[in-house]
């Protein structure tokens, strides 16, 4: 799996497509982003879900809780 991720990160076509997806995502409202994230997570494999949980936990530990409440 890690080899596949590394190969994808070197693929220029994939990079271009990912940049397009990121631009589209950033132009959406919070509600639309949330719906899109939910939809994507529904298609994730168990290992991808575990990866996302790990990343989200790291991000949550970096942000003070007050920033989410304002």
TrEMBL record:
Transmembrane segments: none annotated. One of its GO terms (molecular function) is mRNA binding. One of its GO terms (cellular component) is P-body. The keyword RNA-binding does not apply. Keywords: Cytoplasm. It is found in: Cytoplasm. It comes from the Eukaryota. Residues 18-61 form the RNA-binding protein vts1-like alpha-helical domain. It comes from Hesseltinella vesiculosa. GO terms for biological process: nuclear-transcribed mRNA poly(A) tail shortening. InterPro entries: SMAUG/VTS1_RNA-bind (IPR050897), Vts1_dom (IPR057327). This is RNA-binding protein vts1-like alpha-helical domain-containing protein.
């Amino acid at each position: 799996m890690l080899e596949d991720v590394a190969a994808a990160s070197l693929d220029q076509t994939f990079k271009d497509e990912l940049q397009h997806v990121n631009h589209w995502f950033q132009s959406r409202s919070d509600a639309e982003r949330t719906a899109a994230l939910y939809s994507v997570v529904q298609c994730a494999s168990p290992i991808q879900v575990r990866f996302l949980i790990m990343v989200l936990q790291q991000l949550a530990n970096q942000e003070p809780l007050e920033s989410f409440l304002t």
